[in-house]
Structures are given as structure tokens and as C-alpha cells.
Amino acid sequence: MIWLDAPSYVMISFVLLWWVFNLYISDRVLVAASDAKELTEGKLFNEAQQLFKQAGISKTRLYLVDSPIHNGLATGMNLGRGTIMLTSATAQLSLNTIKAIIAHEAIHIKKRDILSNQIARMLFFTVIAAGSYLFYDQLLMLTDHIVFLTILIYFLMILFPVYLSFIAQWTEMRADYLGSLLLDKQGSQMANGLYELGKAQDEAVKKKLSYSTQGANSVKRKLSTEREGWFLRFIEFQFMVHPPLYWRIYSLRTYKGWRSTLMGWAGARLKESLPDFFRKSIHCNEQNTKEVNAWK
């Protein structure tokens, strides 16, 4: 565009159209790149179709990816092109857990969370660009004060992941809550599904470490379903896409409505990010384990 000496509005339009095109084909690219196989029959297919029907996204397709990683993901930017992908390792978990994972991903598709997160990124960059344009003279003055300019740059670098984390975690909590409503046992089934998924992930990590590190079995690691120290909680709540797994399980067992779930998560982002000597610890790990064993 620069070489062609195109006007600025043409450049902006081209970038936006290219972005929309990439969003439109993103699910096809991901399926092709991962060599995923579409499920069209069987018990898992039938259970998934029932969940898709309940969620109002009956055109969603289910794919299996040959991978030892326990995970599931949703892709596709609109209701007509929704795709859910499960790894082969995830397909080996209990049926109730797989249904919980599919229900969670189904809500991501129904609410178009993949598109929402992309738009959130674009809004952030738009605000930065608009601010740079409106306050160009002030920014130019900052070049004479390199310390203040450096502080501003680092502030924006920290603000960006915190902002994305807030948006993404909000959609994750909503997917947990609304997804649980699609299940027979609702909140308890979603909580137990997350617990089993976390346990499988932990066991896979432990097995991998035993192959790659001498004495790995002697290394003490907390399970992902357990409450970590305050600094790790701070990192997870403020910078990660998903809230800590222990909190997701705790919220599904504690809160009965979306409003209380949302308020509980918003409060936890602040309170759980503080050192323990500032507040009382949430003793939910032992209770979660007992409830899971009782449900099984």
C-alpha cells in the first residue's frame, strides 16, 4: 500500500478487510493445520448434538485431534461456522467430563466469544492509535524525557495483557456457568468435569517430567485444582486467559446464579491476588475433593 502511495483510508480499509477475511477462514485453517477428523456418528457425536441443540447452535461441528494433551477448544467466528475440537486424550475421559467440556465450548460459540476477544484486541489498539494521534505533540515532548517515555511504554505493555485477561476470564466464567445449565447435574457436573480434566493434565505433566528430568518424582508440585501461593494466584488472575482452576471449581459449587458468580469472580480478582496475611484463605480444596469422590 505504501509502495502504491495509497491514501490512508484505503490502507485502513485493506487492513480491516484482511482481518475480517482471516476471521472468516480461521476455523478451516485450524482444522486443516491440526489434521482434525470430524465426528459424524457414535455415542459422543450424539451426546454433542444434543448439547448443541440445547444451546441453539445445531450447525456446530465436532472434531477430534490426535494429541496427548487434555484440552478442548472452540473456533469459528459465527454461529453458522462453529467448530469444537477435542483431543484424543480428552476423549478418553469419562463421558460426563467430556460433556462438561463440550457444553463449556458450546457457550463460547453461542456467545461468539472468539470474535469478542478479537474485537477487544482491536479496540485496544484503536485507542492507542487514537491517543497517539490526538496527543502527538505531548508524546513528541516525552522523547526529551526518556525515563517518562519508558515508563509509559512499560505501563501499556502491562496494561494490554491485564485488559485481555479481564475480557477472556469474564467469557470463561460465563461459559462455565451457562454451560453447566446444559448438563444433567448442572454446576456439580461442570465442577467435577473441570476437576477430572485438571487431574488428567497434572498426571500428564508429571509423566512428562519423569521422562525428561532425573528425580522429577521428588519434586513437589501442587495440583492445578489446589490453591497456589499468592504470587501465582496474582499472575493467574491478572494475566492469564483462564481463572485459576481451583476458583472455577469453587465458584461452580458455591454460587447459584450468574450475578453472584460474576460478583464472586470480580471480587476474587482483587482478594485472591493479595498475600494471605491480608485475608483469610479459602479452604475449598478438601471440600472439592470430598464432593467429587461422593459424586463418583
3D architecture notes:
With 296 residues, this protein is mostly helical. The chain folds into 2 domains: 8-110, Zincin-like, CATH 3.30.2010.10; 131-214 and 223-295, no CATH class. It has helices spanning 8-34, 43-55, 95-110, 113-134, 136-142, 146-180, 186-212, 230-239, 245-254, 258-271, 285-295, and strands at residues 37-38, 61-65, 72-75, 83-87. Strands 1-2-4-3 form a 4-stranded mixed β-sheet, with helices on both faces. It starts with 7 loop residues before the first helix and ends with a helix.
Task: Please render the helix and strand layout as text.
Elements: H1 8-34, E1 37-38, H2 43-55, E2 61-65, E3 72-75, E4 83-87, H3 95-110, H4 113-134, H5 136-142, H6 146-180, H7 186-212, H8 230-239, H9 245-254, H10 258-271, H11 285-295
Parallel strand pairs: 2-4
Antiparallel strand pairs: 1-2, 3-4
Helix pairs in contact: 2-3, 3-6, 3-7, 4-6, 6-7, 6-10, 7-9, 7-11, 9-10
The residue ranges in which pLDDT falls below 50 over 5 or more consecutive positions are: 281-296
Q: Determine the structural class based on helices, strands and strand pairing.
A: mainly alpha
Instruction: Give the total of beta strands.
Output: 4
Largest pleated sheet: 4 strands, mixed
Radius of gyration: 22 Å
Q: Give the overall shape, derived from the CA principal axes.
A: globular
The number of helical elements comes to 11
What portion of residues is helical? 55-70%
Q: What is the H/E order?
A: HEHEEEHHHHHHHHH
Q: End-to-end span in angstroms?
A: 61 Å
Strand content: 5-15%
How many structural domains are formed by the residues? 2
